[in-house]
TrEMBL record:
InterPro entries, per database record: G_TrmE, GTP-bd, GTP-bd_TrmE_N, GTPase_MnmE, MnmE_dom2, MnmE_helical, P-loop_NTPase, Small_GTP-bd
Record note on cofactor: Binds 1 potassium ion per subunit.
Subcellular location(s) per record: Cytoplasm
Pfam families, A to Z: MMR_HSR1 (PF01926), MnmE_helical (PF12631), TrmE_N (PF10396)
EC number assigned by the record: 3.6.-.-
Keyword presence, Transport: no
Name the record gives this protein: tRNA modification GTPase MnmE
GO cellular component, one term: cytosol
Length: 474
C-alpha cells in the first residue's frame, strides 16, 4: 500500500503541530528530510524521539523538530509509522507536510489511518467507530463509554454471540447432511432454547442504545406539575443559579424555558414548563385575560411528549401529609402528567419539604416510581435528586445494570435489530417444526448481521460511509 501522510493536529496555531506518515516508505521519507542535531545519531532508534531539523525538497531548513519512527506491526495502523512534531504554526505544519508529499507520499483521505488499522486487524469496526466518537465526545460520560468501546468490549461481546450461532450452524449442518446417520445434534427444544438465549443477549445490547443516545446527544428532562409547585425554583436549584423568574403569583411561567445542565458528566437539557390546571380551568382561561397562560399549558403538554424523563414536581406544602398517605394521587395536575407521560419515566419530586415533610414517603400512590423529597428554596436533597435523575436516564429498562462499553451506536443498533428479527423468526420456525435446512438460512443471515457490527461481513459502501466521517489525520 502507498505511504500516506496528513496533519494530525487541528487547524489553527498551537504550541505543537504533528505530521503523521504510515506505510512502507515512512522511514525512508523521514531520513530524506530529517537532519539530526546529535553527533551520536546513527539510525532512527524505534520509539525514540530524535531532535533535528526538518528540510524542504531543496535542502533548506524549515523547523527544529522532534521525530519518531515506529515500526509495524505494533503500531496504530499495523504499518511502519512516523510522526514529526514541529512548532504549531499553520505555515510550518503545512510546509512539513508538503515536503513529504513532494518526495512521494500521498495525502491521506478521511479516516484512512483508522481504516488501515481495521484492514490490518489492529481493531474491529466497532473500535474504529469508537475512535471518532472518542474525539467528538460531548461529555465525560460519553468519553468513558467511547474509551471502553475502543478497548473492544462491545466487539468481543458481539463476536461471542456470533460464535454461539456458528456452533448452532454446525449442529444444523450435521442434521441436514447426515439425516440417516446416528450423529449427535440438538433436539428442537434445545435448539429453540439456545436461539432464545442469543436473542435475549441481543435485546440487552440494544437496550444500551438508549444510553449511547443520551450520552452523545444529551437527554431532555421536562419539569411539570401544578401552578406554583416550585418548578422554576427547582430548575434554578439544579442549575446552581437563578435562571427562571420565581414569584408567589400562580402562572408566572407562561412559556417553556430550556437550559443545559451537566449531571456528573451526563449532558441534560432541562425544560421548565408552565404549570397545569384542571382542564375546565384551561378552557375558562382560553377565552379571557389568561389566554396566554392557556397557550403555555398546551405547550407544556407538547413538551411532555418529547421528554426522556419527567420531573413531576408536587407542592408538598399544599398537599400536606394527607397527600402522601392517600391511596390515589390528590393532585389533579399530577394526574394529568402521569396520564400524558405514557411510557416515559417519571420521577416524583415532593417539593417544599422544609414546609411539610410527610410521614409516609414515598407516597402510597407512587406505584413504584422513583421519588425524592427536596426543598428547592433551601437546596436540601437536590444533589440526591440529580443522582436519581442520572440513574433513570442511564437505565435500560431490562433489569440489566449499566455495563461500560455495551452501548451500540445507530449503525450498530440497526445491524443488531436485523439480527434480532431473524432470530425471532427462527424461534417461530423451530416452534412450528420447520426443517433444519430452512432454519440454516436464518442462522446464516443472523450471523452475518452480527458480523456487520465488527466489520466481519460489512460491504465496502458501509466501510466508506463509516470512515468518511473521520478527520483526515485520523
Amino acid at each position: 500500500m502507498p505511504t500516506i501522510a496528513a496533519i494530525a493536529t487541528p487547524p489553527g496555531a498551537g504550541g505543537i503541530g504533528i505530521v503523521r506518515l504510515s506505510g512502507p516508505r515512512s522511514k525512508a521519507l523521514l531520513a530524506r528530510i530529517f537532519l539530526p542535531l546529535s553527533p551520536r545519531f546513527e539510525n532512527f532508534r524505534p520509539w525514540f524521539m530524535h531532535r533535528g531539523r526538518v528540510l524542504d525538497q531543496h535542502g533548506e531548513a524549515l523547523d527544529d523538530v522532534l521525530a519518531v519512527f515506529m515500526p509495524g506491526p505494533r503500531t496504530f495502523t499495523g504499518e511502519d509509522m512516523v510522526e514529526i512534531h514541529c512548532h504549531g504554526g499553520p505555515l510550518i505544519v503545512q510546509a512539513v507536510l508538503e515536503s513529504v508529499l513532494r518526495l512521494g507520499a500521498r495525502q491521506a483521505e478521511r479516516g484512512e489511518f483508522s481504516r488501515r488499522a481495521f484492514v490490518n486487524g489492529r481493531m474491529d469496526l466497532s473500535q474504529a467507530e469508537a475512535v471518532a466518537e472518542l474525539i467528538a465526545a460531548p461529555s465525560r460520560e460519553a468519553l468513558r463509554y467511547s474509551l471502553n468501546r475502543l478497548d473492544g468490549l462491545l466487539g468481543r461481546r458481539v463476536l461471542a454471540l456470533r460464535e454461539e450461532l456458528e456452533a448452532l450452524r454446525v449442529q444444523v449442518c450435521l442434521a441436514v447432511d447426515f439425516p440417516e446417520e446416528e450423529v449427535e445434534c440438538l433436539a428442537p427444544a434445545d435448539f429453540g432454547r439456545a436461539v432464545g438465549e442469543v436473542a435475549h443477549s441481543v435485546r440487552l445490547l440494544l437496550a444500551g442504545q438508549k444510553r449511547a443516545k443520551v450520552m452523545q446527544q444529551g437527554a431532555v428532562v421536562v419539569l411539570a406539575g401544578a401552578v406554583n409547585a416550585g418548578k422554576s425554583s427547582l430548575l434554578n436549584a439544579l442549575l446552581g443559579r437563578n435562571r427562571a423568574l420565581v414569584t408567589d403569583i400562580p402562572g408566572t411561567t407562561r412559556d417553556f424555558l430550556e437550559e443545559a445542565c451537566d449531571l456528573d458528566g451526563l449532558p441534560v437539557r432541562l425544560t421548565d414548563t408552565a404549570g397545569l390546571r384542571r382542564p375546565d380551568a384551561d378552557a375558562a382561561a382560553s377565552g379571557g385575560a389568561d389566554a396566554v397562560e392557556a397557550l403555555g399549558m398546551a405547550l407544556s403538554r407538547e413538551k411532555l411528549g418529547q421528554a426522556d424523563c419527567i420531573l413531576l414536581v408536587l407542592d408538598g406544602a399544599r398537599l400536606g401529609e394527607a397527600g402522601a398517605a392517600a391511596e390515589t394521587c390528590p393532585d389533579a395536575a399530577a394526574r394529568q402528567v402521569l396520564e400524558l407521560a405514557g411510557d416515559t419515566p417519571v420521577l416524583l419530586v415532593w417539593n417544599k419539604s422544609d414546609l411539610c415533610a410527610p410521614a409516609v414517603f414515598p407516597p402510597r400512590w407512587s406505584d413504584g416510581r422513583f421519588c425524592c423529597m427536596v426543598s428547592a428554596r433551601s437546596g436540601d436533597n437536590v444533589d440526591a435528586l440529580a443522582q436519581s435523575l442520572r440513574q433513570i436516564l442511564l437505565a435500560d429498562g431490562l433489569d440489566n445494570p449499566p455495563s461500560d462499553g455495551l452501548a451500540p451506536n445507530a449503525r450498530q443498533a440497526l445491524a443488531l435489530e436485523e439480527a434480532l428479527a431473524e432470530l425471532e423468526e427462527l424461534e417461530a420456525d423451530v416452534r412450528a417444526g420447520r426443517s433444519y435446512d430452512c432454519c440454516a438460512v436464518r442462522l446464516d443471515t443472523a450471523a452475518a448481521r452480527l458480523g456487520e457490527v465488527t466489520g466481519l461481513s460489512s460491504p465496502a459502501e458501509v466501510l466508506d460511509r463509516v470512515f468518511a466521517q473521520f478527520c483526515i489525520g485520523k
